[in-house]
Amino acid sequence: MKAKSMRSVAALAVIFLFTLPIALSAQAIVLKWPSIWVGQDSKAPAIASIVGAFNKENAGKIKVEIEPQPDYNGYEQKIRTALAAGQSPGDIFTFFLNATTKEFYNSKLLMDFSKDFTGDWKASFDPGPVSQSIINGQLKTLPYETAVLPPWYNTDLLKKAGVTKIPTTMADFWTTLDKLKASGVYPMSQMSGDVNAWTSMLWFSAFAASYGGPKVWDKPFTDKAFVESANLMKKLFESYTTPDAVGAGAGVSGGHFLAGRTAIFANGPWYSGRADLRATSFFPSIVIARAPSPGPYKNITISRLQANLAAGGPAQALCSPSSRAISP
């Protein structure tokens, strides 16, 4: 864990130093970082520690200031709006790299790390996410947060419903849902709101990968894998979730699980760090597992390149040759 933390400090240090002008003034250079990893976010302490260590090491020279952005959806919209308008949203910032945001690689706003991403610094990254972050030969963002995204089971509620094991087949899955429903519990949390219908999107993705395999996302959305997955989601929404699931956001979906109104949920590992989840009586009983596989591909685990770190492109023109040679 300590080694991982030090790698994070080193990775950020290179980005921070790349954004410096040629001549340092007598006062510390201040770099702005609009960040969602603040407040109650489970990653806030780690980010504060990393930035604090960097600021201490570079006291009087460079100072990174975090601009709190606690509204995840609002932040994502802010980043997209700024980049689309030809403005850098910060000296350092993160965003989700997807089919829409990858278009920003065509802009001069994002700094290209391709020439500097070498040696030990490069070796400290997982090659898979790095490959995903290279578009048309350019590495304009760095993979900073990845996650495995499995279903979560409140086994206290499962036991009360007479379910003694986590379902691994679709037949067991439907039986589990029926037993939960009969016990008076809404079986699952689902949602269709926010920018990505997050919880339900994870279930849909797991089903689609089971039907279509690892390269399912290369297929057209009319492919059978997506059609069958949509049919499964329709059944879950109609019979096995809360009445407010259609239109619900993450707060509603997660809120039902936190309140013990639903027994099955889906989210990333960061959710386990929430104080309100850890305060529940059933926190020790939560079990994470693979989603059941309806298709020919079994034992599917969904993972995601969650956030990529970028540096404001205009600063690239001010980078000194010496700073570009820095490698942790």
Short characterization:
This protein is 38% helix and 15% strand. With 328 residues, it is of the alpha/beta class.
Q: Please state the second-level CATH architecture of the largest domain.
A: 3-Layer(aba) Sandwich
CATH topology label of the largest domain: D-Maltodextrin-Binding Protein, domain 2
Secondary-structure content class: alpha/beta
Strand order of the largest sheet: 6-7-5-8
The CATH class assignment of the largest domain is Alpha Beta
The helical percent reads 25-40%
CATH superfamily of the largest domain: Periplasmic binding protein-like II
Given the C-alpha coordinates, what overall shape results? globular
Mean pLDDT score: 86
In percent terms, what proportion of residues is strand?
5-15%
Q: Helix count?
A: 12
Q: How many domains, as an integer? A: 2
Order of helices and strands: HEHEHEHHEEHHEHHHEHEEH
Record field, number of beta strands: 9
Radius of gyration: 22 Å
Largest sheet: 4 strands, mixed
Please mark out the parts with pLDDT under 50 across 5 or more consecutive residues, or reply none.
1-6, 20-25, 313-328
State the end-to-end distance: 18 Å
Descriptive account of the structure:
The chain has 328 residues and is α/β, with parallel strands linked by helices. It has two domains: 2-146 and 306-324, Periplasmic binding protein-like II (D-Maltodextrin-Binding Protein, domain 2), CATH 3.40.190.10; 151-301, Periplasmic binding protein-like II (D-Maltodextrin-Binding Protein, domain 2, 3-Layer(aba) Sandwich). Helices cover 38% and strands 15% of the residues. The protein has twelve helices and nine strands. The chain has helices at residues 2-18, 44-57, 72-84, 119-123, 127-133, 155-160, 170-182, 198-212, 224-239, 250-258, 275-278, 321-324; strands spanning 29-35, 62-68, 92-95, 142-148, 151-154, 186-188, 262-266, 286-288, 303-311. A four-stranded mixed sheet has the order 6-7-5-8. Strands 3-9-4 form a three-stranded antiparallel sheet. The chain has a two-stranded parallel ribbon with strand order 1-2. Helix 8 (198-212) crosses helix 9. The protein is globular and about 65 Å long. It starts with a helix and ends with a helix.
